[in-house]
Amino acid sequence: MWYWFGLAALTLIGEVMSGTFYLLLATLGLLGAGLVTWLGAGFAWQLLVFALVSLAGLMVLRRFGILRRKRGDPGRNVNLNLDIGQVVEVQAWTEQGTARVNHRGAQWDAVPVDPAAARVPGPHRIIALDGTRLVLAPLA
Q: Is the dihedral of CA 118, 123, 127, 128 positive or negative?
């Protein structure tokens, strides 16, 4: 009986270290198996309860969309790119529509958010990252 609870404690520690919900589901299944062991059920029932509780938890998490990954453009995600929202000074635009700007002590290539718009020098806000290039929008 105690081995189920010991395995549940190990998977709970693994869950805390990894941050996924899958090991939490295994922990709940192991606790359920330990509970039916304590009630006197045989090993086959213990395995069945472990599997059913784990799968039921998976179904619940999928039903409520907790395991669904959020799709989006990582180049525009403020939580991933702390440069987004920062202000840089554009000295001049080239004929190709790019500029070199100084940001965080380094020179960066920059492109305008709207290539058809007039490119004027001055302060611009970083709105996205396109690979290693900054995508800029004028402040005014």
A: positive
